[in-house]
Amino acid sequence: MAAQKFGKMSKDTLTKRGNDENLVNKFFHREHMMNQFLHQDGQFVPEALVITLDSEEVEAFEPDETDRWEEALTYVRRVANGKSSKDNIHFTGRFSKTGAIDTAKLTDFLKTEEFGGQGAKKVNAGNLFEKEFEHSLQCKLQCLCKKTKYDKEAQDLLDLIDELKKVHGELMFHQSGGCCDGSAPMCFPKGELYLGNSDVEVGIVNGVHFYMSASQFEYWEHTHLTLDAIKGTGGQFSLERPTGLRFIIRSRLYSNQEWEYLKKFPVKRCG
After folding, report:
1. Do 130 and 103 sit in the same domain of this protein?
2. Paired sense of beta strands 37-39 and 245-253, if any
3. Residues 173 and 221 in one domain
4. Statement: residue 15 has pLDDT above 80
């Protein structure tokens, strides 16, 4: 991720263009904004917003306390417009990818577009590639003939899945949560892996259903996942291992519109 292309958040950021409201709206899931921030170490989901005045914690808020929105905004504005270095905004929460719990200062977050960062001339190369590859894959899956930037890469993925179907019959994907194969998408013959109430279906790729554990999905629920295949050795128990290719996951944050759709149509729990 090209995090260096973003500036850092600061108190001064919150005094401009209604950014104080944007911060509070994101925290409380208001105005179609997601409760997720770009931290210098990865995507961060706050579970508490903490206000300190004169180095003393005076108030804390949780995302589901939406009736306290105005109170939180008042405190945020007080910190943003104050001159004391002892007045600060902190968050406690977890990183989306690892689930690690941590405390973050406002200045640990990067100034993304909703706070006036990045801008039209600056592009996050990782996010751009993921969106363009996703577009190419969708065009292939929908049998659209128009040429896209990553036609070959998308076709290579679909060809690999088709080859595995010819050898093994119907397939299934399950996102590994670690252990022997790290965090990798695993391909199995359909039905080989038992699915129960602890699993959710997150999508379908080329007719193959993709699952992950519900506990892992809690960390990834704000993230759009796209399956890809690159050169390498697949997971120890994954069917693509002998082919010289391996499945990987590419990810990006959902747009606000996508997140609103998913709140209305959530993923399906198995079992």
Report:
1. no
2. unpaired
3. yes
4. yes
Identity of the residue numbered 248: I
Distances (CA, A) of 38 to 84, 104, 108: 26, 11, 9
173 or 29: which carries more pLDDT confidence? 173
One domain, residues 132 and 175: yes
Distance CA 54, CA 141 (A): 57
Q: What is the pLDDT of residues 169-197, one digit of tens each?
A: 999 999 876 544 446 789 999 999 999 88
Q: Which residues are within 8 A (CB) of 216 and not within 5 positions of it... i.e. 6 or more apart? A: 175, 177
CB atoms closer than 10 angstroms to residue 102: 14
* Residue 81 placed within a domain: yes
Cα–Cα distance for residue pair 123/150, rounded to 1 Å: 18
Mean pLDDT along residues 129-158 = 84
Which domain does 31 fall in, by range? 3-113
Q: 155: which 2 tokens?
A: 């076709």
Predicted TM-score (pTM) of this structure? 0.57
DSSP 109: B
